[in-house]
Structures are given as structure tokens and as C-alpha cells.
Amino acid sequence: MGKAHSNAYRQVARFFPELEAQPVLKAICGRNEAEVREAARNLGWETYETDWRKLIERGDIDIVDVAAPGNLHAEIAIAAARAGKHVLCEKPLASSAGQAKDMLNAVEQAQVKHGIFFNYRKAPTIALAKHLIDDGAIGKIYHWRAAYLQDWIADPNFPRVWKLRKEIAGSGALGDLASHQIDLARYLVGEITEVTGMMTTFIKQRPDPDADPPQLAEVNVDDATAFLARFANGAIGTFEATRFALGRKNCNRFEINGSKGSLGFNLENMNDLEIYTQETIAGTHGFRTVNVTSGADPYTAHYWPHAHIIGYEHTFINVVYDAFQAIAVGAMPSPNFVDGYRCNVILDAVEKSAATGQWQEITF
Amino acid sequence: MGKAHSNAYRQVARFFPELEAQPVLKAICGRNEAEVREAARNLGWETYETDWRKLIERGDIDIVDVAAPGNLHAEIAIAAARAGKHVLCEKPLASSAGQAKDMLNAVEQAQVKHGIFFNYRKAPTIALAKHLIDDGAIGKIYHWRAAYLQDWIADPNFPRVWKLRKEIAGSGALGDLASHQIDLARYLVGEITEVTGMMTTFIKQRPDPDADPPQLAEVNVDDATAFLARFANGAIGTFEATRFALGRKNCNRFEINGSKGSLGFNLENMNDLEIYTQETIAGTHGFRTVNVTSGADPYTAHYWPHAHIIGYEHTFINVVYDAFQAIAVGAMPSPNFVDGYRCNVILDAVEKSAATGQWQEITF
Amino acid sequence: MGKAHSNAYRQVARFFPELEAQPVLKAICGRNEAEVREAARNLGWETYETDWRKLIERGDIDIVDVAAPGNLHAEIAIAAARAGKHVLCEKPLASSAGQAKDMLNAVEQAQVKHGIFFNYRKAPTIALAKHLIDDGAIGKIYHWRAAYLQDWIADPNFPRVWKLRKEIAGSGALGDLASHQIDLARYLVGEITEVTGMMTTFIKQRPDPDADPPQLAEVNVDDATAFLARFANGAIGTFEATRFALGRKNCNRFEINGSKGSLGFNLENMNDLEIYTQETIAGTHGFRTVNVTSGADPYTAHYWPHAHIIGYEHTFINVVYDAFQAIAVGAMPSPNFVDGYRCNVILDAVEKSAATGQWQEITF
Amino acid sequence: MGKAHSNAYRQVARFFPELEAQPVLKAICGRNEAEVREAARNLGWETYETDWRKLIERGDIDIVDVAAPGNLHAEIAIAAARAGKHVLCEKPLASSAGQAKDMLNAVEQAQVKHGIFFNYRKAPTIALAKHLIDDGAIGKIYHWRAAYLQDWIADPNFPRVWKLRKEIAGSGALGDLASHQIDLARYLVGEITEVTGMMTTFIKQRPDPDADPPQLAEVNVDDATAFLARFANGAIGTFEATRFALGRKNCNRFEINGSKGSLGFNLENMNDLEIYTQETIAGTHGFRTVNVTSGADPYTAHYWPHAHIIGYEHTFINVVYDAFQAIAVGAMPSPNFVDGYRCNVILDAVEKSAATGQWQEITF
């Protein structure tokens, strides 16, 4: 994440030279001095710190980017806000809705700006999808159907890394992957009102990477989570997030069906949007693959010619562009901690439904 | 359905000349004499009847095919069995598990052979999928992910036809579409042990096609149904069936992920199977599109040269081929009323979970 | 071919019951009596003959279908025409343009009806493509780009079968595959005015299947042929036909680009047409995949519901339907021997250009 | 091009920190001082020049990147070489083979390093393709089949810009697009020995963008070019380059068929390589889509996690990485002016064959 965030700060003004408030990469922070010194040099930071508290105390810093592991988000973000820094935070915002609420309260009390790296919102394809939905191009929405599929832990001998420990990561596929889905669903379809779900751990013990002699350690997060949802506007949704879908590496895909058309997306081909609308010529209806690399969104005109595709890193550049544009004019970035908090509320509800077998109402 | 079934009986011996018991198309039955007379001529039947009871009394008939609307299946099938006829029935077997159980009891007591038109099992692609799974090619199964998407009633002005009336159709998308999904899941993954689901009717009133003057009539079946499932072997599943997915006409698709590979299918390209397995050359893993039109299954060698694709009707021809081969040697066709009954049990459980908000255990 | 043609005659009236002149399958002809007797029974013919001259003499036969190897087409077709039979012939019509001209002269002098099995014209997708082009939906045509790719002789140990002998087959990939491409190009784009091409035989000797002891025999037809073309309307075209494209089994694909849109087709997914036209919503242009299984063409309404796909055999059924409809009203089937002759003229020109290295003008 | 090249120099050390000779962006050159000053600031250059001769005289510059219009390449590159600078040049190298030969002679006499921006060679997918071919994974190559399709001048009212003027651009689709295809074919398949082709200008007059009052100006370059080729290793090839393929924006695609497998690529999905090889399980052969975003090539390990795709700009970063790695150790970059010259020889041969209607032998 540090690499993708650093790249975004370094590159944003190159593609968006009109940006009023251009980032200056003052300092990167990490606990291991040798590593952070090298990271500072490689990634283009002026200086480095080994204690995040020092970073926050520095007077030459206006904005703090929290890209630490999830269990540290709250402490850092709250401290940064209290020190008067604007805060941009990785997702999910917190390990629980309660913690997220504390963070939201802190930034609001400090009256600082806040943003969250739900970066897939900023893919040009998603920006176009949002525009089409808001314009009524697909009508009233009936269905949201999402699957975020990865396979990097399908091998039972893959070690019990920190992402498989609840005490650090908060949850497994749910927080890591479904949080992206929930944010996209809220952005494109609207608020979710109730959920029921299931969470599964297929491989319950894995090699402990730190154990000597070798031994197995418990996996206490979900390998896969699936849930059903109802939206406030009457639509229904299905969500699935897993790290056990062999052959799917980063397949964050969804389909939306409305009364006038449908939209489809897959992150692995993030420049393409599938669009179905009624055609003027009878008998020629079909989903069309739209290469979203020119002009119909706020971003692509700043990059390359039509069909010269962009990659993953540009979603971060776009997050930073939007956030800095907002901050430059005194506005609030979007998405922000409100979105982060609401996502955490829904994540908690999915977990509770999985534990109780009961539908959970969502209240913010 | 009459057209597809008739075609299957007419064509099966042309493609499978080795078939020992070849169908003779003795009589077709329908209530309207003019229509059934024309159907008999067009579809190649020797004679016709206008009362199904007459058909069952005839001594020149060994096998009865029940393709009437769902609410008539039980009465006809039970009477046919009691008359000593073998019975092949359209899906879903019955309107409820109780009714299905009565049908199963009837054929077992009469000691007649029975089969059910879960025809998609017989697509060559599905036969290959089954073969690969049984051979261990994709290992232990973790995920079943299915969506059966149509859009033919998305227009709110589409009339309230019989398929939208619970008293005739039993249910909506659930019985019509999810029954196919449930059968494929049972066939390929294994038995389902519990489900929780949701059912929705987006358009609650539609024009009554029989009303004069025009008036609206209530829709009392589901427009869309989604549910989560656990399988006996530890896999988890998601199911969705809808008639409101604009642009999807007959998109019966699923993906299965196992510990060694994955499989994907979409009925709209029913000759293709997506297969992911580990490759011998590093860095060249990917889903491959396999055109299943030659030899690796029991059917394609009887049809056309490689990549000269077959269509929808051949799934019915294959059902008839398998059923007649079984009956010729005194064996029981597969799938049969046991599969039909179990599917009805699961359909009932989904409905109950949707009504109660509770997970339902499946017991046969 | 006998199987596909027989199926078409047997099935056409089942799907097109309004057909005025329904085929009666009087007699099939083959040289081996045991084999032709079995074929007659399996494929549904009333009787059989072992000498095609006998068949032509029979008074109960109105139409002769010539599906023999290419080097026999002329003799049979000419004799049949002189006997006053209507003649339907497999493609390519003849082994040379001169021979094709003789055949055309014979049917015209005898004033019988004639047709040719350029069956891919009759795929519903192609019928829709033709309709769109004639309607101006893609504007003035600039490009035709076609590749017909197979791989069944890529193995050097595959034997030197009759299709690899010029004296029987006339040519290799050129006559077998490019003839289909040429016909589709003429149908959809218009007449070709000049060509230049290359022909290659990658494996020049193969095992002789009849030799004992084993020995190699010369392959004297093309393994692959490619050519460039100019059309009368100013469009340019590329054609490639090969039996050495590993992984491509029956990939007969083309793309047409016009001033207002584009069309794409691949026989391996013969129910889908790719269509690109300008959209009303800016930034949403893209090729759409249209599942041509309902109503916009003359055929699909006679088959199955939307997106319940048809297979290869239906192109033959449609050829027979169109031909019999024409003959029933005294009209000439289309395509017919004129199309067959013109295709042979172009095939000869490609061969001559490959031999001389010179562009060849096309004159009919 | 200036933007993509500048980005590559700026970014290369961020992704490849081990690079020994890291670029320092000393000066950018342009004729309009206001514009070049702004470009220098936006793109990250220390200084700027308005006369390329000044740039070449500067002692603080070791490497000159020639990204000017094609008709200026020779003069600048030759002068830079004579001044002892290493030279990296945009493609095509020159407007003619003769000019290219002069450039090659110049760099060789000056004993400077030289490279050319045939950037698509450096896409990870192409690097993997090259690796597979060299490893024998697809066997002996039989076919190269390439189409580079764009549509940006299909509108007859699009003005006669400089790319449509032979005196500046050299040629149209041929030099601009086919040069990329020729380089990829040489890289992946081998040397071309003879060609025959056709060139077409569909719209012969267009609005002159500089005319007042409005008037039409002649287009004297090709809108589309197609040619056939023979390779030294016995393979045959088809090439097509056009700016009139509606719906295709930057579709640089090819397919290679060998005796053991096939490869397919389309620049619009530049992270995916289509691979066909024989499978160990019978009946499961098919093209697989490989997302080349991890480790099997020299580049992807430096970027993002698996299936987090990269975009167009990374091909330039990879060109710069390879060239600087070579220069750092005193080696010659690849591709270089030899490749540029050979490409120009083939471009000239295509033009001559189009003018004469004769096959042209290629001699370097």
C-alpha cells in the first residue's frame, strides 16, 4: 500500500497539472529504520520517521495518510486529527463499527478534512457507471450481484500470515474484500437496510510462520463470506468474498440490473464497462464492452489516448486528485470517514448474522 | 415443452442408432382438439387424445411423458404409474415436497421406471464437468456460485400470465429457474444441508390478460429469489434466480471452485466449459474455454464434427437417450423422481427461510 | 454431409409446418450396399440405391441432392439436370470454374431449379447481418477481414487422406474453407474484382493410409491459403484459410467495418453476432454481443425461446426451407449455381495468383 | 509521446530501484518556448531548450531521446550521435530505409549506444510470449496473423492533420501502425523474406485545418494497408493496419500458431495473453486467458500484486529500464537501430509491392 499511495502523491500533479494543492512528499513513516530509509529514497519522500507520533508532531505536515495495518488505524487517525492534520485512511476504516465511530467523531470534532481509500470508486469505469445510473440510463435498480474472488490462500500449506489473524486484520475476506464491495454497492445502488450472511473457514490450521520448531496455528478469520442484502430503494443484492476461488486472482466483479438496462464490471479488466441498454434497431440488443479510456468521465482525458489503457495505480492517483481538489477549496473529500463508518456498520452486521443465523437490520 | 420433448423422441434414434428401445410416437394429448390434432401432425405423433385418462388406459403405450403445467403433474404421474406405465416428468416434479413424495411413493409402489427432465445435466459440457469432478481434477469443492438470469417480465406492463400465478405455477423464479440450479448443484457438488434465502416480487400488480374491462391482477409468485447454502461436503453455495436481469435472456451460469481447479458454465454458450487447472508451465495459468463438441463425454461423438456446435434441443435428446437405454436393460433412469423429490424439498426450505428469516435444515 | 443433409430434409417441416412443398425422403445413394442400407434406416430414407444413375432415372424423385466428393459433382449434377430434376449441390460447386460453368449451363438449359449448400448464409446471425447491411445500419463498407481456422492436420503423422489429394478434393484449405468465406463476402459485401494470394503446404509428405508396407505419400493441396482482395464497391478484404491453427477447430470468423458501424461473427459461437453502432449516450460505444435467437430474422421464431440456442444442423434446415419455399412457388433458390460458379472463378484466380505472384482480375 | 517518455524516465527508478544508471531529467526541447516551459514543469524536467542543436551541445547530457515527428528523426539522431550522445528514438526510425541506414551508420561510426521505442515488445505479455516461443512451448511456427485496427479518421469530415501528409508522416497506417506489427513479428517469429501488399486511401480529400476560407486538401497517405508475408523459417503471415475499423480504438492484435500451441494478444487488454497448449486431460483443450501480472517475465514483479493490472505507460518504463540497464554495463539496448532499419526496409517493400502489384524480396 505504501508503494501505491506514494506513487499517487508523486504522480498526481503530472497528470493533473491544474491541481491547486499539489502534494509535497515530506515524510514516510515505518518502524524499521533501515527499511524506511530505503523506502523514502525509492518512493520519493524527502525524509522519514520511525515513530508515527513524531510525524504527527511535525509542523511541516498538513495531511496524514494512514496506511498502517487495520488495528492501528484508529489510534493514528484520531491522534492526527487532534493535531489538526487532515487525514486520509486506508480501508476498511476500522476493525469495528464502534472504533470507526470514534474515528469519525474525532475528525468531526477537530474539524479536519477526511477521506478514505475506497479507490475502486475512482476507476473511470465506475465513474461512468455512477454517471449513467444518476442520469437514469438504467432506470430503477432491481439487482446488485457481486463476487470478489481471489485464490492466494487456497493452498493449505500457505502460512498463517497476519492477514489470517483476527487480532490484527479484524476479519478475513469480509473486511479485506467485501468492504470494497459494500462501498461500491452503497455508491452505485444506495444504502443497505438489512443483511444475512455466512462465514466459513475452510482451512482451520496452517503453518505458523514464526514457529520453531514448526507447528500449526489457528486461523481465526473467514476464508470466505457470502451474504444477502436488501437496499432502501427496493433492490436486492448478493455478495460473496473469498480467497479460495482457484484461478481468480483479483476478480472484483459485479452486475447491476435496472428497469432500463444493466451494467457489469470486473476489476481484472478495469478499463472495460459492460453496458446493456435498449437499442433503436430491433433484435440487436446485447451487452456491449465499453473501453472507458476517453473523456466520458473526469479522469481519462488526463491520461493517454483512447484505448491506451491505465492500470491499478491510477485509481489511487484519482483518489488523491479528488481529495486534494476538495481540500484546496475547503470542501470535504468523498468518500470519507462517513462512508468508512457505514461500511464498518455493515461488516459488523454481516458478522452478527453469520453468528446468529438471523437477518440484521442496518442502522447508522 | 411439447415441441422439445417430441423432437427428442423423434430424433434420438437418428443420432443414437444403437439404441435398443427406440421410441415410437404413439399419441400426444391436449385439451383442445383442433390444436392437438395439428400438433400431432406437425410434431410427428401417430394419434392424439384430448383426455389424459384415455391416454393412460391405452394398451399400446408403455411410457408416459408428463409435460403438463406443474399443478397437474402429480395426478397424471400417479395415475400413469398405477396403470403400469413408466413415467418421465418435466421439472419441477411437483408444487410441494409433500406432493412430490406422493409421486415418488406411487412410482415405487407400482415398480415402474421413472425419470425427470432435468435436461441441463445432459449437456455435454455438464457431462464433462461431472466427469472431471468425479476424477478429482478440481479436487475438494469449496464453492458453488450460480445465477439464473432472465428478463422477460421486467416490463411492468407485461401481463399477469399463468407463470405468475402461484395456484398454477407453484412459485415464480424459484420453481422455474432455481430448480435447475439446485439439480445441477446436487449433481455436481453434492447434497445441500441447509439454506437461507429471500424472495421478492418487484411488480406486485400487472394487467390481467383475461379481464374485460382491463384491470390489474395480483402477482403472487417471486420475481426473484436468492439463497445461501451449505453442502454436506463443507462447500458453500450462492444461488440467485430472477426474471428481472435486463439483457440476460437465458443466462443459467455457475462457477465451481475446488482445491485443484475451477469450472464455469453459461447455458447461453452451452457448448463451452470454462476450466481452470494448474499448468505445467509456470506463469501460464488461466481459465480456458473448452468447446465440448468431441468425444470426452457420452454424447458428442453421435452428433457433428468438432466445433460444429449443438443447440438446446440436444439436452432433451440426451435425456431420452439415457432414459431409454436404462429402461431397455431394466435399470432406473437418472435423474429420476428421487432427484425431483429432493429438489422440491429444497425449494420448500428456501420458501420457508424466506418467510421466517431463519436458516432451514434439509432433511429428505 | 449425408447426415446433416438427411437431418435437414427430415426436420424442416417439423419446424416450418407451413412449408408448402415438404420433402419426402425417397432414396439415398451410396456405393457400398451394406453401408447405404444402414444409412437409409438410420437417417430415415424410404429406399436406397448403389448407383447414382439409377437414382436419376427414378420417376418418383423430383429433386437430387449432390453430396458426393467434389470431383463427382459435375457429372452427377449435369445428368440430374438433363433428367429434369431440380438439383441442390454441396459446396464448392466444382473443381474448377470451367467445370462449374458447364454445370451452370446444364441447369439453365434444362430449366430446372438449382441451389447450393453455402449453409452459413442461413445462420440467423448472418441473416441479421445481411439485413443490417442492406438497411444501411453500418453504412458504406470499408473492410472485410476473414479467417477460417482449423487444426485437424497439424500433426505431421496425420495420414494423407482424400481431402489432401488434389485429384479428388480439387484443393485443400482453399476449396474447403475459403469457398465459405468467399460466399459470405460476396453475400454481405459484394462482388470481388481482383485478388492476390499465397498457398502453402507445410507438411509435404504424410503416411499413405492405403500403403502396405507403410510409406509416405505426397500432399499436393494447400495446408493454408491467404489472399488480399478488392471489392467492386471500394472495400478491401483479407482472407485466410488454414488447417494448421492449433486450438482453432472450426473458427470461421470475420469482421466487417463500415462508415457507420461494424459486425463480427465466429461460427464456433454461431448464435452470437457482434455489432458496433454509434450510441445515443456519449462515451458508451462498444461492440455488443447479440444472441440472435429471436425474431429479427426469418428463422429463429420457428425454433426455441430466446437464448435457447440452435446448432450447426439448423443452417442446413434453413437452406432446405428456403430452397423448398422457392421451388414451391416456381422461384429460383438462393444461393444457387450462379453463386457456386462465381465462387469457383474466384478460387481459380487465387490459385493462379499464388502460382504467378500477380494480382488476378475477376471476370465472370 | 513526450508525456509517455517523460513519465518513463521519471518513474523507472521508482519501480526498478536496483537500476544502476538512473535517468536524470536534464532538459526537454520544443520550439514554442511558452509551451515547452510549461511541459518542463508539468513533466518534471530540470530545464528546457527551444533548439535541439543547443540540447545536443550541452555537456551535462549523455542520452538524447528523439520523439520529434518522423521527418526530423534522421537529422537529430545523426547529429546527436556525432556529438557522442547515446540515442533512443521513437518508431518508425525513419521515413525510408535509406534514411534509416544513414542513421544506423551514424550511431555505429560514433560508437554510441542506440535504442528504439518499439515499446510493445516490453509488455509483460509479449515478454512471456517470447519466452514461451524460445522455450519451444508452441513448437515450430506456422502462422502469424495480425490486425492493428483504429477508427479515428473514419469520419470524412475529420481534418487533414499532419499524420495524413506524406511529407511529414512518411506514410499513414503503414508507418504508424504496421511498423509495430512488423517489429513484433520479427521479434516473435523471425525475419521476413518477401511481401506483397495493398494500400488504400478511402477518403481522398479532407478539410484543410489551416485553410481560410475552408477548403479541401489532398490526403496522400494510406488509410489502410494489408500485406502477405513469408518468413525465413517457413511460416506465413498476414498483416493489416487501418484507421477505418469502426469500434476498434487501439486494437493491436495478433495470433501465432505453432506445431505445439498457439498464442494470442490484443493491446486493448494488454495484461492478458491467450495461450493454447496441449492438456494432460483428454477433451479439455482450449485457449486460456492468462493474466500476466506476476513473475513469469522480467517486469511484473516490480509492479503490483497479481491481477492488479498495469497500463500503457509501463511499456515505456520497461523500454527505458532495459535500455538503461544495457547502457550501464556497456551493452547495446535491444531493440535498437538495427531493428529500426530492418523495419523501414520492410515498410518500403510493402509500399513498392502495393505500387507494382509484385512480391518484393526483403534484403537488409
Outline the low-pLDDT stretches of chain A.
none
Number of helices, where a helix is a run of at least 4 consecutive DSSP H or I residues of chain A: 10
End-to-end C-alpha gap of chain A: 29 Å
What is the mean pLDDT of chain A? 96
Oligomeric assembly: homotetramer
Radius of gyration of chain A: 21 Å
Task: Report on the architecture of this protein.
The structure is a homotetramer of 364-residue chains. By secondary structure, chain A is of the alpha/beta class. The first copy, chain A, folds into two domains: 118 residues, NAD(P)-binding Rossmann-like Domain (Rossmann fold, 3-Layer(aba) Sandwich), CATH 3.40.50.720; 237 residues, 2-Layer Sandwich (Dihydrodipicolinate Reductase, domain 2). Chain A is built from ten helices and 16 strands. The first copy, chain A, has a nine-stranded mixed β-sheet with strand order 15-14-13-12-6-11-10-7-16. Chain A has a three-stranded parallel β-sheet with strand order 3-4-5. In chain A, helix 4 runs parallel beside helix 5, helix 5 packs antiparallel against helix 10 and helix 8 crosses helix 10. Chain A is globular and about 65 Å long. The model of chain A has no long low-confidence stretch (mean pLDDT 96). Chains A and B meet through strand 6, strand 7, strand 10, strand 11 and strand 12 of A and strand 6, strand 7, strand 10, strand 11 and strand 12 of B. Strand 15 of chain B pairs antiparallel with strand 15 of chain D, so a sheet runs across the interface.
